Amino acid sequence: MCGRYVVAKTSGQIATIFEADEIIDEVLPSYNIAPTNRVTIVVDRAFEKDQDGSPLGDISRELHSARWGLVPRWSKGPADGAPLINARIETVLEKPSFKDSVIRRRCLVPASGYYEWVVDADGNKQPFYINAGSDGIFGFAGLFEWWADPSKPATDPQRWLLSTTILTKPSAPELAHLHERNPVFLSGDTLDVWLDSSIEGDQDLLRAISQDSDVVAGDALFYKVSSEVGKVSSSGADLIRAL
Length: 243
Description:
Layout: E1 5-7, H1 11-17, E2 22-23, E3 30-33, E4 38-49, E5 55-68, E6 86-88, H2 99-104, E7 106-111, E8 113-119, E9 125-131, E10 138-148, E11 160-170, E12 181-183, H3 191-195, H4 203-217, E13 221-224
Parallel strand pairs: 2-5, 5-11, 6-11
Antiparallel strand pairs: 1-3, 1-8, 4-5, 7-10, 8-9, 9-13, 10-11, 11-12
């Protein structure tokens, strides 16, 4: 799974890398992003939509701030159960919380890297930082959803909560010794297709990004880091310094 990750770049840098047209919300870099934190997502947004939800007219690639932990539109609210920070790619089309988002509400979640904890024979947990290199950045395949707060009037812009989840899959061979699952990594070949809401998300699309993810994972770097990362209150670039 992916339960803690890093974004070491500014919103401006992310916008340049992923060729975004506009930054709607800026999110500061963070070396210890935890569930329910505000995170950056990249979406391709149409200003008009057909009756079936497909985009019409011009498309704008935008950076938005979203809550990490998807809140289904039919949910009672953000406090309704554990945060849905991950979605298993094998079952995502079967789960009521995610299946509608797969069709046309797909996003990219930028990440410099993420943390996993490996348990040794003595039961000690050693955190590792899996990353794209000091200058690189991953694009995790994500889903997003809008939830409307029923306690607020329809005219209140604060009524709407944007939230996101990260897709995971069985680990690529190169990462399997660290954890049994890893995030689904998008590549230059799958990024645009995944964000394109004119394409209905289905099993074929999920299969394509899952296969391509293993290619990206093969180039990932990883090394041991300080156990300080286990504290949500810990922050700063020292967290990703190799031991």
